[in-house]
Design a protein that fits this description.
Elements: E1 2-7, E2 13-18, E3 41-44, E4 51-54, E5 90-94, E6 106-111, H1 125-143, E7 150-157, E8 169-175, H2 180-196, H3 201-212, E9 216-219, E10 223-226, E11 235-241, H4 253-270, E12 283-288, E13 303-308, E14 310-312, E15 315-316, H5 321-326, H6 335-344
Antiparallel strand pairs: 1-2, 2-5, 3-4, 5-6, 6-8, 7-8, 7-12, 9-10, 10-11, 11-13, 12-13, 14-15
Helix pairs in contact: 1-4
Length: 348
């Protein structure tokens, strides 16, 4: 992998990731951009103990532009975009409208492909591997920035999720705090260790799912994907490496090599859940990594969580009173049924 770092016209960092060493990336951003002005502020919720980012500058961000004005496509004559070059493989750059900035963290955009009409599921295994390498490299670099506690690479896909740019892309959030979801996992991890005399919660969850088998979606030599016993979402899959590591940096070459085939198959199955002729399934997919300064860091298990808010054809799972008001989820699809469906739509 070749990594080329440059700066956009307003000073934001942009990084090209290429599979070939002989690629030259020297295009200059010729847009007349003013320096980015952000107003991110972190506020602590005294009742819940979590943190809220207030980012009023995001109200003016780009919203559903036409395809010929997409800011994530390569630049061409007469239309300059966020990517100065006329082509690319994978690109990462600082978000112009970040939720977190400065002392309040950092937000980056990851462009998976220059093809505006593609999706992650359309990538070749080699391209998906390059994205994995970019996620890993960004985790390494962001972990060394002052104040960063946790790095979360994720993808939102589909208008139903709230995506405002149709080009296949994801984001990376570098939080200056431990997120509430991770804090709950760490609490459960510690409680399980105390109750069981030192056993690891993540190891036991994976072992129990593999032994039960009913919720297994697919298995490889180095990865297992399963619907969790208490899935919150209609179709939700967790993907674990068999060897527990705290973050992407810990994956060995064997796991890295197998990941593209496993993950691409998962995404393609998601697109087939609701049958032929249906629109592509909206989803959120994200890597859960250990906070860098957590005392239980070595006991945390890197894993990917993938879920959709679509519960059946043409119907969404809305977070109403119980979910939004109290955080108490009600799932419309039994996890065993969801896993069965995801096995039924396996590639032939």
């Amino acid at each position: 992998m070749k990594k080329t770092t440059t700066r956009l016209a307003d000073g934001r960092e942009l990084i090209y990731y290429d599979s070939r060493d002989d690629v030259v990336r020297d295009a200059v951003d010729r847009r007349p951009l003013e320096p980015v002005a952000t107003e991110s502020e972190l506020r602590a919720d005294r009742l819940l103990g979590d943190t809220v980012a207030v980012a009023s500058h995001r109200q003016g961000r780009t919203y559903h532009p036409p395809a010929d004005e997409c800011p994530l496509c390569p630049s061409r004559e007469g239309r300059l975009s966020e990517i100065p070059d006329s082509d690319y493989e994978v690109v990462v750059f600082e978000n112009r409208f970040p939720s977190l900035a400065g002392d309040a963290g950092r937000c980056e955009v990851v462009c998976f492909t220059p093809d505006h009409d593609a999706s992650f599921a359309d990538l070749s295994p080699a391209s998906a591997r390059l994205v994995l390498d970019a996620w890993t490299d960004r985790t390494r670099d962001l972990s060394q920035q002052p104040g960063v506690e946790q790095v979360f690479p994720f993808e939102n896909r589909g208008a139903e999720i709230g995506v405002t740019l149709g080009h296949p892309h994801g984001q990376i959030y570098a939080y200056p705090f431990v997120t509430p979801r991770t804090a709950l996992m760490l609490r459960s991890l510690a409680g399980h260790r105390e109750r069981t005399g030192g056993r690891n919660l993540f190891d036991d969850v994976l072992a129990d799912e593999r032994a039960d088998g009913r919720r297994i979606v697919l298995t490889g030599e180095h990865w297992t994907a399963f619907v969790p016993y208490a899935a919150h979402w209609p179709y939700e899959v967790h993907l674990y490496p068999h060897r527990r590591v705290p973050d992407l940096l810990g994956l060995d070459e064997e796991a890295r090599a197998e990941f593209p085939q496993v993950y691409l198959e998962l995404l393609r199955r998601f697109d087939r859940i609701f049958g032929e002729g249906q629109p592509r399934t909206p989803y959120i997919s994200g890597w859960h990594q250990a906070p860098f300064n957590a005392p239980d860091r070595r006991d945390f298990a890197l894993h990917l969580e993938l879920f959709t808010i679509r519960r059946t054809s043409g119907k969404l799972k809305f977070l109403a009173g119980s979910e939004s008001g109290m955080g108490a989820f009600i799932n419309d699809v039994p996890p065993e049924s969801a896993a069965l469906r995801l096995r039924e739509v396996a590639s032939q």
